[in-house]
Design a protein that fits this description.
5-stranded antiparallel sheet; alpha+beta; 129 residues; 5 strands; single chain
């Protein structure tokens, strides 16, 4: 069964898509730890980060870096944190989380955003890619 991310990639369900290339997609997390919380996902469905061939791993990290640099210009934060957990969805994804405190990285406190806030973030991040 395809993951929720594969369904977004295939446009079977909506997602807050920031950008994509032939191999990756970046989307805003719908249940973010902080405003701007972004997921960078390989389009090829693989369950575990370390199951990716080395070049695909490196390509995912390069794509994530590019998105993180744009995100940092848009969202006020001390830095962009990176987390790869992989338990909640069986499809590799890199969390890019704007951080101001260590609590922002704990996946406990969640932000609520309106559709227009998601849309504004997407436009602003794209302008900085």
């Amino acid at each position: 069964m395809p993951s929720i991310f594969t369904k977004i990639i295939n446009r079977e369900i909506p997602g807050h898509i920031i950008t994509e290339d032939d191999s990756h997609i970046a989307i805003l997390d719908i249940n973010p730890n902080a405003k701007g919380h972004t997921l960078c996902i390989p389009k090829r469905e693989v369950n575990n980060l370390f199951e990716l061939p080395e070049q695909e791993y490196l390509d995912l990290m390069a794509f994530s870096r590019k998105v993180a640099m744009a995100l940092e210009k848009v969202v006020s934060c001390k830095r962009i944190g990176v987390s790869v957990i992989g338990l909640e969805v069986p499809h590799v994804h890199v969390h890019l989380i704007p951080l101001n405190t260590m609590e922002d990285a704990r996946f406990i406190k969640k932000e609520q955003l309106l559709q227009e806030e998601f849309d504004t973030l997407i436009r602003a991040i794209n302008e900085n890619l």
